[in-house]
Design goal:
251 residues
Length: 251
């Protein structure tokens, strides 16, 4: 297991699902972890408790990353608590699935604001202390296979996640000379609270299209994120790592 001892990691939206699994995995590898949440303090505190019970170091910080002030306060709290930030995992996300003809402006805006604008705010705020430290850094943005192939009823979500991928590539070019790597992880269907409202026929169709023949787990994604956060991935930047059981083959 690749260790992350001495590293400071911030995971947005880490109270549940993929974010929770990522926070726990990074802590298991030795990182000190900031568990970000927006509304559900109890879930974030539960994630922190799991980490601390296993001998790790973590704290929860409330912030709405869809706003510039929220993201800046979050980065400031991270640096205040642990003196630096080495790893940023942009996981916070939301869905408001609806066919385009039925979609309301607020459904579009809410998804873009959190899923794409949140990544922009957090990256912009985190890069400053990373540059000051002159120790490099790791940024991992959680996208989705939906951002590569699209999904019916998810024009807003697919657009936001495709945007994250393009953003990742551009930023990787901007900060590569400073030893900051920027990569995206694109999960396929992972059984979390975010995906539980999908219709059963959609879930079955996705399973049939997945060559490995099973749904993904949050822990599958967490392992990929931990690798990209490690020294073993120091020469990997500007890539999208699909963790989808083959769902997006050819995309």
């Amino acid at each position: 297991m690749t260790r992350l001892d001495g590293k400071v990691a911030l995971v947005t939206g880490a109270g549940r699902g993929i974010g929770r699994a990522v926070a726990i995995e990074l802590a298991r590898r030795g990182a000190r972890v900031v568990v970000n949440y927006c509304h559900r303090a109890a879930e974030a505190d539960a994630t922190v408790h799991v980490i601390q019970a296993a001998g790790g170091e973590a704290l929860s910080v409330q912030a709405d990353v869809s706003s510039a002030a929220g993201a800046e306060n979050l980065i400031r709290a991270t640096v205040s608590a642990f003196s630096t930030i080495d790893i940023l995992v942009n996981n916070a996300g939301t869905t408001r699935d609806r066919l385009l003809m039925q979609m309301k402006d607020e459904d579009w805006d809410a998804v873009i604001q959190t899923n794409l604008r949140g990544v922009y705010h957090c990256c912009r705020a985190a890069i400053r202390p990373m540059l000051r430290a002159r120790q490099g850094g790791r940024i991992i943005n959680i996208s989705s296979v939906s951002g590569l192939v699209g999904q019916v009823g998810q024009t807003n979500y697919s657009a936001s996640k495709a945007g994250v991928i393009g953003f990742t590539y551009a930023l990787a070019r901007e900060v590569g000379s400073r030893r900051i790597t920027v990569n995206a992880v694109a999960p396929g269907y992972v059984a979390t609270e975010l995906t539980q409202d999908l219709a059963e026929d959609v879930k079955e169709a996705l399973l049939k299209l997945t060559p490995l023949g099973r749904y993904g787990t949050a822990e599958d994604v967490a392992q990929a994120v931990a690798f990209l956060a490690s020294d073993g991935a120091s020469f990997i930047t500007g890539v999208t790592l699909r963790v989808d059981g083959g769902l997006g083959i050819g995309s």
